[in-house]
Design goal:
The chain is of the alpha+beta class. Helices cover 26% and strands 29% of the residues. The two termini are 18 Å apart. The chain binds one RNA strand through strand 15 and helix 14.
RNA sequence: CGGGGCGUAGCGCAGCUUGGUAGCGCACCAGGCUGGGGGUCUGGUUGUCGCAGGUUCAAAUCCUGUCGCCCCGACCA
């Protein structure tokens, strides 16, 4: 039994000045966590119990699925990460350090390499597969901007699993098992979430899904079709636009459009000089970028912006994308800022990409590559030809669902889990092979699966808190029951103590507020702030032999005879 | 990387413009009253004023540098 009189806890009356989001504010105020440095937090007793409860649920579900727990160091030598090139690729996000001999080490940001090497060193036969291993470990990433308390930290707790299979079918099966285990896990954690298709990344089109907990303070944006259930990270959202046939459209025509460097100004002048009815959607925006230093132009409808994150995620084989600066325009005098058009792309030395919305056969108003001039009737396929179609335009609420064409909504969420078919990238880089039936070496195929454990604590807090404090689901609360003894006589304290014992005998963990020197008001406020699901008040009602049982979420209260309290409490959990 | 803001007691803040040797609330300690909604009275404890340098008889305050923290933007052709 935890006793408030001796619990290492100090709740704060005021919100900490550096906390913005609810989970951060309340976890600090309620004495769960304390900040040590940007994105680095300590866990106090109540917080650490909660974190371990989340870990326990995850561990139980992983074990139930037949995955085996191992544990790696967080401190790792660089060699394995050099073999997969991540020592370079991770860049400044990687915490690097040297030992006394000058050897390079890192604090693991994720452990694909180590798991791959472990399986390599132990297993060498197809008969050993499949196998799935996991660990719960601290991860270290030197984030450019740690944020929102525990939601994006530089040190955080992650459960990472890796599956190893001989065949693609095997990988599909392992992936499905993890997906099912994640569903069970997040359900038990009391999280609301959507499973959303995510970017498969640069490595060969394998499957990837994210578990997103909807929450206004989340950092991820995703689309959801309420009609058919389609859900996708905006980066992975597919747009389908039918090709048109505007081959018979009139020939291109140059228009005099003075002082129209922006879409808005262009639309105004078009409507003024060339008839009404032009909208931004009729114009074609040519967004110039440098892809690894080479100029490219991305074509999107004028009423859309380019979403750089989507573009980057979908443009494979390119390391770095940068917007054209005035300097870049100066280096390419043929590219007239504000009046760029795709029809002369070859002559101008620009590689053309188009968003799918700029479908083959569509006709546009676009820049004439001359100052103060635009062209109309510029037809895709006749007057210009993109080398590829890539998802680049921003997604808007109401856009058509790729599955059912219904309108999608856009929502924000916290990414709490990510499951991913890695394929053979790491196994190849680190030569993880097993002998097949014919005695031939086969490269193993892998999946990787992550749950943000500490982040899940924050996500649950975000989804369950109210104006007065935290409000945990029973499964992860630091205790199931919070008993508050009030008054100055001994009796309520004795009754509370006894009741605590009875509840513990029923298997319910108890936090007992046995502080003699605090007023009832202080104890009630603390109980609400701390957020244990059932609160039992032992005080006034004791005159009739009763205690008051309150449900933290919703606040319903009822008085029951002391003897009936344990059964009632148990029924509420 | 850019923009904005902030570093003064465990927490929240004032003091800085106009330099004179640090204050308020909460918390904490002692005692009294109160005892079901952060109650009250009296007395107390707590500070390298982020750090370094400079100006000055004198710096929390002015100047320079530096470190740290928070928020916003990572973009509009």
């Amino acid at each position: 039994m935890l006793r408030m009189s001796s619990l290492f806890l100090r709740t704060l009356r005021d919100d900490p000045a550096d906390a913005e989001v609810a989970s951060h504010r309340l976890l600090v105020r309620a004495g769960y966590i304390r900040r040590i440095a940007a994105g680095i937090y300590s866990w106090l007793p109540l917080g650490y119990i909660t974190l371990r409860n989340v870990e326990r649920v995850i561990r139980e579900e992983m074990d139930k699925a037949g995955f085996q727990e191992v544990h790696f160091p967080a401190l790792l030598p660089k060699e394995a990460y050099e073999a997969t090139n991540r020592w370079q690729e991770y860049g400044p996000d990687l915490f690097r350090l040297k030992d006394r001999k000058g050897g390079d080490y890192l604090l693991g940001p994720t452990h694909e390499e180590m798991f791959t090497l472990m399986v390599k060193s132990e297993y060498s036969s197809y008969k050993d597969l499949p196998v799935s291993l996991y660990q719960i470990q601290n991860k270290y990433r030197d984030e450019p901007r740690p944020r929102s308390g525990i939601i994006r930290g530089r040190e955080f707790v992650m459960k990472d699993s890796y599956s190893f299979d001989l065949s693609d079918e095997g990988l599909n099966f392992s992936y499905a098992k993890h997906r099912a285990a994640y569903i069970d896990t997040f359900n038990r954690l009391g999280l609301k979430y959507n499973i959303v298709s995510a970017m498969s990344g640069a490595m060969g089109g394998s499957k990837s899904e994210e578990f997103l907990a909807p929450c206004p303070t989340g950092e991820d944006t995703y689309v959801l079709c309420e009609k058919c259930g389609y859900a996708a990270n905006v980066e992975a959202m597919k747009t389908t636009v039918a090709a048109k046939d505007s081959q018979s459209a009139p020939a291109m025509e140059e228009l005099d459009t003075p002082n129209t460097p922006t879409i808005d100004s262009l639309v105004d002048v078009l409507n003024e000089k060339y008839g009404s009815g032009f909208t931004a959607a009729d114009t074609l925006k040519n967004v110039l970028l440098l892809a690894d230093g080479k100029p490219i132009s991305v074509l999107v409808p004028g009423d859309r912006e380019v979403d750089l994150k989507r573009l980057e995620a979908n443009l494979s084989g390119v390391q770095e994308i940068a917007l054209f600066t005035d300097e870049d325009f100066a280096k390419h005098p043929d590219l007239v800022k504000g009046y760029v058009g795709p029809q002369d792309a070859k002559r101008l030395g620009v590689t053309l990409y188009a968003d799918p919305r700029v479908a083959p056969g569509t006709s546009w108003v676009t820049g004439a590559n001359k100052k103060n001039r635009h062209m109309r009737n510029v037809v895709n396929g006749r007057d210009f030809e993109p080398v590829a179609y890539i998802e680049a335009a921003e997604v808007k609420s109401g856009d058509a669902c790729p599955e059912c064409s219904g309108p999608v909504i856009i929502d924000r969420a916290i990414e709490i889990g990510h499951i991913f078919q890695l394929g053979r990238k790491y196994a190849e880089a680190l030569s993880l092979t097993v002998l097949d039936k014919d005695g031939k070496a086969q490269v193993v195929t892998m999946g990787s699966y992550g749950i943000g454990v500490s982040r899940a604590v924050a996500a649950i807090a975000e989804q369950t808190h109210d104006e007065i404090g935290l409000s945990w689901p029973a499964e992860i609360a630091p205790a199931k029951v919070h008993i508050v003894a009030t008054g100055r006589e001994d009796e309520p304290f004795n009754v509370a103590e006894q009741l605590g014992g009875q509840l513990e005998a029923l298997g319910l963990s108890v936090l007992l507020d046995d502080r003699r020197d605090s007023s009832a008001g202080v104890k009630f406020k603390d109980a609400e702030l701390i957020g244990i699901p059932v609160i039992v008040v032992v005080g006034k009602a004791l005159a009739e032999g009763k205690v008051e049982v309150r449900v933290r979420k919703g606040g319903e209260k009822q008085e029951v005879l002391v003897a009936d309290a344990p059964a009632l409490v148990k029924s509420l959990l």
